[in-house]
Amino acid sequence: MVQLWLTRHGETEYNVQGVVQGVVNSNLTARGAADAQALGRGFAKDGVTFDAAYSSDLQRAADTAQLALAAANINLPVTQLSGLREQNFGLFDGQPETQRQGALGKMLTDAGVENVASLNMKQMVDLVRIIDVHNGGGAAENASMSIMRFGATMAKIAQDAEIRGQENVFVVAHGAIIWLWLNSLGMPDDADFIKNAAVSKVVYGKKGFTMLSYNSRKYVELGGGNKDEPAQHFDLN
Known about the structure:
Blueprint: E1 2-8, H1 13-17, H2 30-45, E2 52-56, H3 59-71, E3 78-81, H4 97-110, H5 121-134, H6 143-164, E4 168-173, H7 175-184, E5 199-205, E6 208-216, H8 218-222
Parallel strand pairs: 1-4, 2-3, 2-4
Antiparallel strand pairs: 1-5, 5-6
Helix pairs in contact: 2-3, 4-5, 6-7
């Protein structure tokens, strides 16, 4: 059995500013970097070690992985994979969250739905794909597209780990795509958004993937990090 420690990156400048990140880069804040280091210290304090490490090729994920491993005194290279990237939000990537919320609000109002906040992540990304295509884009992924892309990458990571006899694998990715993939494994539709530096544990075996836990900042807290949820002014970012 292979256990995958699927982790969201630390807080970024765009998180604080209320900007949609998607597949564009944004630097970790001082708090985001500190949380990544606390995460690593938490791993070390709990005796957690890893046989392999992966991250998205977006800078915030790679930086989080490297900071955490260094703080845990784990000397491993971080393999960066584009398949672990965040959900692509098309024309909204790099734009203020208010722009995305406004477009979703108008679409829902036209359809007779009152509240954007009633959407879960899967519903939101499917609607963003429709808006993106309607406005001449088309780069935005719907839930099925991104889950297939991310799931195939996770399967390759797990299968390679099996072949190499690796038991614990550290994977750093992004909030929306982690939520969508875990939801496809059985996480409830009303589950909270994935927190910065939160760990979700998944095992891979003969029957495929099984989710053990999700959205825990236990290791950040164990490593002396802030017990409060990182600043997140926009729920769907």
